[in-house]
Specification:
Oligomer: single chain
Distance between the termini: 34 Å
Radius of gyration: 19 Å
Number of strands: 11
Length: 313
């Protein structure tokens, strides 16, 4: 059988030295039996992180520099456009590959018994070598409301948390969703679904994709036999207000798209009215930042509602 071809798409936005570290890690997988190419979409970084980077020899690298930040979903679609690879990997710049990171999921998907699997995630390790709980449940309106106001942390049996935190992630199993930091997809599935829905500027695009794939009969699997390093929030650590705005914006869009009218209204009320109060109570020292983030969210609400009615990608 021919070597599996893997096209890796990395969206970069002010990642500091992490992008270079990520690219250097490709030296651990360049001889693992996969034909690899890498595309970096730099979303108007201002820190120079996209300058002067290089992949190891024999790993073709293309860099596309956007003059404006077009968002994570749009940049992923931009990087994957026209690809002829068998598989696509959407990889965060705050990751580092390890031996088997690419060959593991590629060989798993090539196995005939896994023909119905369209998306694979792998074991992600943090700086202490601990396994991140990086698979998630498809949320309901009830669970999203609980997550919005922090009740999933207080009453997890009543308001199920989004991530499967109780499971040790030490075995391979089918899941609802795998984390977008390492999102390994059959290219045919990606093209069938027309890629990520670009209405999600960032956050929830991976969940939306998994839900749409599942509706077409494609399963998501967490593969415990392959692993990579993931720092977590590596490119948004210094952008708390913007992260809060984008996260809440995408939550509302997801609810409008998938949870019906009543569910969407419940999630909107929780996000717009109750969540600011819960955040202020939990972190009073960040009151100014919280208030600015939710003021921006309220200001954007008319455009969010307009976008949610537009034709999905």
């Amino acid at each position: 059988m021919d070597r599996p071809s893997v096209h890796v798409v990395i969206v970069n936005w002010n990642s500091g030295t992490q992008l270079a570290e990520c690219l250097n890690s490709f030296s651990t997988v360049k001889d693992d039996g996969s034909a690899i190419r890498v595309t970096i979409i730099d979303n108007a970084s201002a820190d120079g992180s996209g300058d002067g980077v290089a992949a190891p020899p024999s790993v073709p690298l293309a860099i596309v520099r956007n003059s404006d930040n077009c968002g994570f979903s749009a940049a992923c679609n931009q990087g994957a456009a026209g690809s002829q690879a068998e598989f696509l990997l959407f990889l965060n710049p705050d990751t580092r590959l390890m031996p088997g990171s690419l060959a593991g999921p590629a060989n798993f998907l090539r196995s005939g018994e896994n023909d119905a699997v369209g998306i694979v995630g792998i074991r992600l390790l943090d700086e202490d070598g601990k396994v991140a709980r990086n698979s998630a449940r498809v949320p309901t309106a009830w669970s999203m409301v609980g997550n919005s106001i922090g009740l999933d942390r207080v009453f997890p049996s009543i308001f199920p948390p989004h991530f499967n935190s109780a499971w040790a992630h030490d075995e391979t199993r089918a899941v609802d969703q795998v984390m977008g930091a390492f999102f390994f997809v059959r290219r045919s599935v990606f093209e069938t679904l027309s890629g990520f829905d670009e209405r999600f500027f960032v956050y929830y695009e991976d969940l939306d994709f998994a839900v749409r794939a599942r509706a077409r009969g494609w399963r998501s699997v967490y593969l415990a036999s392959a692993q990579a390093f993931h720092r977590g929030q590596g490119t948004t650590t210094g952008a708390t207000e913007r992260r809060t705005l984008y996260f809440c914006r995408s939550r509302i869009l997801y609810a409008r798209k998938h949870l019906g009218a009543a569910g969407a209204v419940a999630v909107m009320i929780a996000t717009l009215l109750l969540e600011p109060i819960a955040r202020l109570a939990a972190r009073p020292g960040s009151a100014a930042s919280t208030l600015r983030a939710f003021a921006a969210l309220w200001k954007e609400l008319p455009s969010i509602l307009r976008v949610s009615w537009s034709t999905p990608s």
